[in-house]
Structures are given as C-alpha cells and as structure tokens.
Amino acid sequence: MFKAYAQRKQNETVMGHRLKEPHLTLWVVFWVFVYLGLPLLLIGSVIDLLIQYFTGTCTGFWCWFS
C-alpha cells in the first residue's frame, strides 16, 4: 500500500518540456498558520484569560516575562 506513495513519478512533459515538480511555497506556510495557528492561539489566549479572571493567577506565556 505504501509502496505506491514511496515511488517517485516520472516528470511530466508537455510538448517536450518537463514540468516542475510540485513543492511547498511560502503561501502554504502562511495559510497553514492562518487556518491552524491563529485559531489555536486565540483559543489558548481565551482559556488563559478565563483562568486569570476566575482564579487571579496568571498562567499565560506572557506571565513568565512580567
């Protein structure tokens, strides 16, 4: 099953010209951060804010530096 994924494909050609292989770009990194990083950051910040509001103790990352 995994053998099919491990094998590299031959470069595709169009009218004798080889196409570039797909690769990760900076846009991929940006959108992964937008869709995964920001929501996790916001959820964590809200949880830290609620804990600080109800218990009075700062548990956030920024508390280590204050």
Topology summary:
Elements: H1 3-6, E1 13-14, E2 17-18, H2 26-55
Antiparallel strand pairs: 1-2
Describe, in plain words, how this protein is organized in 3D:
With about 70 residues, the chain is mainly alpha-helical. It has a domain of about 40 residues. It has two helices and two strands; from the N terminus they run αββα. The chain has a two-stranded antiparallel ribbon with strand order 1-2. Strand 1 and strand 2 form a beta hairpin. The longest helix has 30 residues.
Order of helices and strands: HEEH
Helical content band = 40-55%
What oligomeric state do the depicted chains represent? single chain
Mean pLDDT: 82
Number of helices: 2
Strand order of the largest sheet: 1-2
Report, as a whole number of angstroms, the end-to-end distance.
53 Å
Radius of gyration: 23 Å
Structural class: mainly alpha
Note poorly predicted spans.
Answer: none
What amount of the residues lies in strands? 5-15%
Summarize the entry for a quick read.
This protein is mainly α.
Keywords:
mainly alpha, 2 helices
